[in-house]
Specification:
This protein has about 200 residues and is mainly alpha-helical. Helix content is about 60%, strand content about 5%. It has helices at about 1-30, 35-40, 55-70, 80-95, 105-115, 120-125, 135-145, 165-175, 185-195, and strands at about 130, 195-199. The chain has a two-stranded antiparallel ribbon with strand order 1-2. The radius of gyration is 23 Å and the shape is globular.
């Protein structure tokens, strides 16, 4: 009876240990870096941008500058999009290659938000297309005039006689920074229609 009990206990311990080992090995090899883990969640990093990559880093910084400047110590005192874009690119590069750890959830969420492609970065990969927030005053007014009355169904109501472009700009800013992941793919066409200007 003692030998059987020892055998059962040994088997149980080995089974538990092998399960724990499998889980640890699985975490280490399935998602060894933050970038690998992001890719497993269908995110693409800004380093994958083919067109105007540094412009995209400046834009990403501009869209999130208030949050970045408060959340990340390296950005305290940054006052230009050029400097912010440069620092953001370096910050992301250092962290994307870092080991993914579920314990560093807050840092991983910042990497996910600040280092990946968003609707704006995908939209501006096309030739002669820029987002409305990067357009000139004339381009913004032309786009605004063309869209008046159309936005009612999109969550922004702009009467035909309105001259206030702010609701459109707010809607665009909110939607341009959505991450480019499968659940937002359908938004791209809509955002491009309402938030882009062509050269």
């Amino acid at each position: 009876m003692g030998a059987i009990a020892n055998s059962v206990i040994t088997t149980a311990v080995l089974t538990a240990f092998s399960g724990l080992s499998y889980k640890t090995v699985s975490i280490l090899f399935d998602h060894p870096t933050n970038q690998n883990h992001l890719e497993s969640l269908n995110y693409r990093t800004l380093f994958e941008a083919k067109k105007d990559q540094f412009t995209k880093w400046k834009s990403k910084y501009s869209l999130h500058s208030k949050e970045i400047n408060v959340s990340i110590a390296e950005f305290y005192g940054v006052d230009s999009n050029v400097q912010g874009g440069y620092l953001l690119k370096r910050w992301c590069e250092a962290r994307l290659g870092g080991h993914f750890s579920p314990d560093k959830f807050e840092e991983f969420n910042m990497i996910k938000k600040f280092c990946t492609m968003d609707i704006k970065s995908i939209m501006t990969e096309q030739e002669n297309v820029k987002s409305i927030d990067d357009g000139t005053a004339v381009e913004k007014r032309k786009t605004f005039a063309k869209l008046k009355g159309k936005l009612k169904t999109k969550g922004v109501e702009i009467p035909k006689d309105s001259v206030d472009i702010k609701p459109l700009m707010r809607w665009c800013k909110e939607n341009l920074k959505l991450p480019y992941i499968p659940e937002n793919y359908s938004k791209l066409e809509e955002v491009q229609e309402f938030c882009s200007v062509t050269d």
